[in-house]
Specification:
The structure is a single chain. This protein is mostly beta strands. The chain has one domain: N-terminal domain of MutM-like DNA repair proteins (Alpha-Beta Barrel), CATH 3.20.190. It is built from two helices and nine strands. Strands 3, 4, 5, 6, 7, 8 and 9 form a seven-stranded antiparallel sheet that branches. A two-stranded antiparallel ribbon has the order 1-2. Strand 7 and strand 8 form a beta hairpin.
Length: about 150
């Protein structure tokens, strides 16, 4: 990731999205509308918020017929899961480095940047990463009881 910092240290992990949040003020207008809405949500990088992506668990990644990232809630933090739908995917790179039969990887943080073809969404997982270049994306918080879109 270009701005978001995720690194391990002797006490665990260090997470800092402040450079990205600051940069977002200058680049938000360059993002497609769905990506801009998602990245600019004030709770997105508030680590104490139930609407922060940190600690969501990878539930699924569908590439056909649509490219959809499904993230489940962390029982200690989130009331809902999240579904990210990518529109007009140009490329993606997905890498998981976890032992077989280990728990699903959880999200550390993410960032969305403008790209000449739309936007680039990078997600850092514990033990992996995902990078998607697409025309746009939509992120929908799901009702945890039935995995339906949550309407506030």
């Amino acid at each position: 990731m270009q701005y978001v910092e995720v690194r391990s240290d002797p006490d665990g992990y260090w997470y800092d999205a402040s450079r990205y949040v600051e940069a977002l003020l200058g680049i938000a207008e360059q993002l497609p509308s769905g990506a801009r809405t998602w990245a600019s949500d004030p709770q997105h990088y508030d680590l104490s918020s139930p609407r922060c992506v940190k600690d969501l668990s990878l539930v699924g990644l569908d590439v056909q017929p649509e490219f959809v990232l499904r993230l489940g809630p962390n029982e200690w933090k989130h009331q809902q899961g999240l579904e990210v739908r990518y529109i007009g995917v140009v490329s993606f790179d997905f890498e998981i480095r976890q032992p077989v039969n280990s728990p699903p990887p959880s999200v550390q943080l993410d960032e969305v940047l403008p790209h000449e073809l739309g936007c680039q969404h990078d997600v850092a997982f514990h033990g992996g990463r995902l990078s998607v270049v697409a025309k746009d994306l939509t992120a929908i918080w799901l009702d945890a009881s039935n995995d339906r879109p949550y309407r506030a």
